[in-house]
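Regression test attached.
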Amino acid sequence: MDIGAPKRIIEVEPAVLPVPGPVREEPLPAAEPAPAPAEPGR
Amino acid sequence: MSSVDTGLVTAVERTTEPVVAWRSWALTGRRDGTRLLLRPVAGRAHPWHPREVATATCRRSGVFHEAPAIGCTCGLHAAQTLDILRWTKCPAVLGRVALWGRVVEHELGYRARFGYPQRLRLICQFCFWQKGPLGRTPAVVAFYPRDELVPLCAGHLESAHASGMPPRRLLPADLVDQRLRDTYAVDLLAI
C-alpha cells in the first residue's frame, strides 16, 4: 500500500485508550443472610 | 527522536485524540470458526490480538529502532481513504482503526506506533477489488489450509470451485462476522 510521502509527525496521548478491557468473570457476591423473623408480638 | 528521523519532517504536533483511519486485514482461525485472528495482509508482521494493543516494532535496518521512524517504512499502516485499500493483497476484513503514540501522517495514510480496530466487517476480496465497498456481502467464509479464512460471496465461491480451489470447509459469513466483532469487542462497520 503506497501512502505517499510523510507530511508531519503527531504525538497522540489519548486520555482513554481505545481498547476494550479483558473479559473477566467476577464471582458473584454472597447473598446477605436473610433477616431473622420478628418475634411475634405478645 | 531516533537517529533514523533525519528527514525533512521534524515538527511534532501533540494531541489527545487518536487518529482514526481505514485498514484491511487477512483473517485466520480454526475450521470451526474459533480462534479468529486479524493478521496484516502483507509481510510477516505480528497479528493483531483481540483486546490487546497492537504495537509496531522494526528491525528493518538490522538495528532495532522505535517504530514508526521517518526514514523507514515501519509502523502500523492505515489509509486516509477506503479506495487505496482496494489494491491491498487478499483482504478479508475491512475496518476503522484508532492509531496513537507516534503517528506519522503521509499524503495518503498513516504509520503509527499503537493501534486497535474500532469497527470491523468481513468483505469478499474479489468484490472489493472489482467494486470497492459496494460489492456483494460475503455469504460464506471458506476455510483453507494454514487456517486461512476467506469470506466469499456466492458468485466467487462458485469461481473458487471452478478454478480448482475448493474450500476445505464453509462457515456462515454472518456468524463469523458477529463472532469476529464479539472477539475484538468492536462495532459493525457500516458502509
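Expected vs. actual: identical. The interface with chain A takes residues 7, 9-19, 42, 51-53, 70, 77, 79, 84-85, 87-88, 98-112, 116, 118, 184-186 of chain B (CB under 8 Å).
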